[in-house]
Amino acid sequence: TRAISIYGDIENRFKKFRSLDLVLFNNGFANQSIKNNGKAKTLYSKLIERFPDSFVLPDSYLSMGEMFFQEKSYSKALQFFMKIKGFPEARAYPYGLYKTAWTYYNLNDAKSGIKELESLVNFGREVREKGLDSRLDLRKEALEDMALFFEDVFPASQAYAFFKKPAKDFGVGAVLMRLTELYKSHSRHKDVVIVLHDLI
Fold it and tell me: Nearest-CA neighbor of 85 among 99, 73, 71?
């Protein structure tokens, strides 16, 4: 709470401070960390409105989206996660895609969620090929979650063809075994046989 007080004091006393966007972001993050989401949203909103060129803008969108996601306000969360797509160079970009996918899933739109996860896998492969090691690589997580989303959307007969290309860096077998575990847990035994047959 002392940090929150200091950030608030800087904002009030030094209105033309050159790094005021960082002050607002850090204050928002501090409030968010103690579950004071109302104040955090106010601070992030102020940053977004007043500093459209700030390098912490994507992180602000991510934080806003996370709070709405936690509150199960998925439509509002999606609006903020989608804004991160305009910043492919930002460190928040891959996680923004990941959260966008899960937001679609919670909106009962697994098909759109799969598209976001596919974009994330392609992005991760591109980052690896270019040697951008500082970027968050969420391909493995995306593929595992894609199996979950796939179960809701497509028939088992399409699984092998669907996952063969995106899973090539990790092995299609691992992803399909994840899918068969999901089928087993939902007593979809015929689908298990179909996937294993195609894999073999």
Answer: 99
